[in-house]
């Protein structure tokens, strides 16, 4: 299927590994040039080289920390300086720490808010005026299934991720007439470095093996396995395309059936 986005420009945040990297590769397959960012320069440059050597696109790697307002501004400005515009924004970031609900300090809460909410606010605030000027834009926010169904030991995600959906839903109404769509994706248990870390931590706390703990986790998923970053990326790329022109304000989970709610 021709998704109609060849030659467009994207920004994909936290793209050196995991879901962000899978999204960047998927967009590159469609002929999208892009800026990718991450805090780790070595991993970022390796991913940029891997994509450029495999696909006929231009990649701009930018070291940026999404919790810093100036880094977000720099990321967007450098993208515009290099490519002239921004058509697609995929907001993605690491998740906050897990643990007992009352164990987190004010600083933990503030950091989680900056990482998972305020970074999205800032990115949208920077790119939407650009998209309005060209009367076309796609914003896809990576959130978490925790926004639809709270997860054990993840109070920071359970509390802050729903705010991103509220942001996206509100903004989608305001910019729809400018041919800009804004949608959110809620990944479930996706086999990334973060999930491996969560499972290892849970295994240690329950004095169980990693393998048994992972098996317990997947037993609650109707499909009976964890998802892959590529399976999440496939939806993101569709939502970022011309083919998804009548989908906006939507929140869609990619979770193998984990979420039990109707909406």
CATH class descriptor name of the largest domain:
Alpha Beta
How widely separated are the two ends? 29 Å
Report the helical percentage: 40-55%
Write down the overall mean pLDDT.
96
SSE series: EHEHEHEHEHEHHHE
Poorly predicted runs of 5 or more residues: none
Tell me the β content. Answer: 5-15%
What gross morphology would you assign?
A: globular
Structural class category: alpha/beta
Distinct helical segment count = 8
Q: If classified by CATH, what would the architecture of the largest domain be?
A: 3-Layer(aba) Sandwich
Largest sheet: 7 strands, parallel
Strand order of the largest sheet: 3-2-1-4-5-6-7
How many domains make up the coordinates?
Answer: 2
Compute the CA-based radius of gyration: 18 Å
Written account of the structure:
By secondary structure, this protein is an alpha/beta fold. Helices cover 48% and strands 14% of the residues. The protein has eight helices and seven strands. Helix 1 crosses helix 8.
Topology:
Elements (H helix, E strand, L loop, with lengths): L8 E4 L5 H12 L3 E6 L2 H14 L4 E5 L5 H15 L4 E4 L14 H29 L2 E6 L12 H21 L4 E8 L5 H13 L4 H10 L9 H11 L11 E4 L9
Parallel strand pairs: 1-2, 1-4, 2-3, 4-5, 5-6, 6-7
Helix pairs in contact: 1-8, 3-4, 4-5, 6-7
Describe what is shown at a glance.
With 263 residues, the chain is of the alpha/beta class.
